[in-house]
Write a structure and sequence with these properties.
binds calcium ion, 276 residues, mainly beta, five-stranded antiparallel β-sheet, 2 domains
């Protein structure tokens, strides 16, 4: 069942600022709002993704009950805010996993961008202090059966120094961009209050996105659907990596440290590919 909700007072303000010709209470599908689609009761639960890394992050319980999109169609951004265990930092983030809903307007091969930010200011707000670390551009969706995860390897891995939060964002460049599509799967079990959404009146998202970059920017909970995006990530704490062959890292400048961290990441990747 497709359902479109209109936002209350915040949207009223948005509508006024956009000088739209219709009242928000009578807004058509082109208003700045979200659209949703309830998963059918017969859909099976998603299996856990296969992770080959010591550390894995998830907010969801493995099942989505709702899928969300922009009522405008076009692009929007949805992201999960993770807070790594301080004992895992610094670390390399290796892979992002996303579950796409079935029957929600997304096809295999449709393109998304994945963006990884660090937000070290400790205020739990992705709108302040987010710094883009790495992006995966124009990545094709691998599965749309609602149970199989799509895996997005991070080129060169992403070095996370912490402290604070890591934001994992998805932008639908061609995936689920028609009006009525809802490419963002939402687990409505127990909300962690860490899943955010951004929608612009232009139905586009800047590349790379600047947070906050949108007309609507809020947790999905605040927009009437409490829950967690099915966006996960995995990686390796530096403490889990054998760095004995690497020169001492103390006292190095930022550029040298970046080069050495890249070398460590490449060595670990080779070992993992060889199954060592
Ligand atoms: Ca912040």
């Amino acid at each position: 069942m497709n359902k479109k909700i209109l936002l209350s007072s915040p949207l009223m303000a948005i509508c006024l600022s956009l000088s739209l010709n219709w009242g928000c209470t009578n807004a058509a599908a082109s208003s700045v709002s979200i659209t949703s689609q309830e998963k059918t009761a017969l859909s099976p639960s998603a299996a856990a993704p296969v992770i080959d890394a010591p550390t894995a992050w998830a907010l969801d319980d493995g099942t989505y009950e709702q899928s969300i999109g922009s009522a405008l169609g076009g692009e929007f951004i949805w992201l999960n805010r993770f807070t790594p265990d301080p004992n895992d930092l610094p670390m390399f983030l290796e892979q992002v996993q996303v579950l796409f809903p079935s029957g929600a307007g997304v096809d295999v091969g449709d393109l998304v961008d994945i963006h990884i930010y660090e937000d070290t200011d400790g205020d739990a707000d992705p709108a302040t202090g987010a710094r883009l670390v790495q992006s995966i551009m124009s990545a094709p969706v691998q599965a749309v059966d609602g149970v199989t995860w799509s895996y997005f390897d991070i080129p060169g891995w992403a070095f996370l120094g912490g402290p604070g939060d890591v934001l994992i964002a998805v932008v639908n460049r061609t995936a689920g961009t028609n009006i009525g599509d809802s490419p963002a799967a939402l687990d409505q079990g127990v909300s962690q209050g860490r899943s955010w959404i951004g929608i612009n009146a232009s139905a586009t998202i800047a590349n790379p996105p600047v947070l906050p970059s949108s007309t609507i920017w809020n947790t999905i909970d605040a927009l009437g659907y409490s829950g967690n995006w099915l966006i996960r990530a995995s990686g390796s704490p530096l403490s889990s990596i054998d760095t004995s062959s690497v020169p001492a890292m103390t006292g190095l400048g930022g550029a040298a440290l970046t080069i050495i961290m890249g070398a460590i990441g490449a060595a670990v990747r080779r070992k993992r590919l060889k199954g060592e």
